[in-house]
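Chapter summary example.
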Amino acid sequence: MSFDNAASTGQKFIKFAVVGVAVIVGLSVLSPIVVISAGERGVMTTFGKPDESVYQPGIHFRVPLAQTMHLMDVRIQKGEGEGDAASKDLQSVHTKIAINYHLDPRQVVNVFKNIGPSTDIAADRIIIPAAQEAVKAVTAKFTAEELISRRTEARDAIGNLLRQKMERHGLLLDEFAIVNFAFSRSFSEAIEAKVKAEQEKLKAERDLQRIEVEAKQKVASAKAEADALALQRQQVTSELLQLRKIENEREAIRKWDGKLPQVTGGTVPFIQVSPKD
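The structure predicted for these 277 residues follows.
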């Protein structure tokens, strides 16, 4: 194949491609049928003027060239943002948040008129500034330490304020979360030192309680022993001693084998035995 033939073939391919694209674009522009998918709503404009009706998912008809169907995504969108604010005690707080939101399907026409057809535009113009304002307003009501200990309360307050601001523009807040509160290094070290001191104090209190319990147990045990000895002393009477003496003598007689002990140079021991009746 010569160079001229290759060039001619390339030019023909480019022409066919251009014609094909033009046909596709022409069909899409001149097509009277518009399909709205699930998770979308449509806004029809006639020569640029939006219709007040919200078009639901399905097949719809339009007048080619005169009318255009703008598709609005009403599915849940995810957004993240971060910014700096000052706490009630003037500590610098860096806050990172995450939200889930979606366009109110009933308000897509107003959103199209006031903001635009894209959810990205809504996020840039409405959500991010509103989130920053809400974070700053609520953070200023809490001290830095309270933002840690009352994190849930601070999160709910920010979420409620942000929800109100978004609803005025046809946007609905589904979920709001504070990903992180970050403070200055000096404040973070002070918090860590305070937590450590509280833990050591709690440990010391527990050790003291344990020692007190053990001491009370020892006192109770000693008292019980003293009471037992005192009771035994009360029970030792002269009659009891005499009884124990008689019992010992009887035990000695019972064990005697009848033989007198062998004694050298002394008198024979005399054992008095009472005659039997």
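To summarize the output: The first strand starts at residue 33 and ends at 36.
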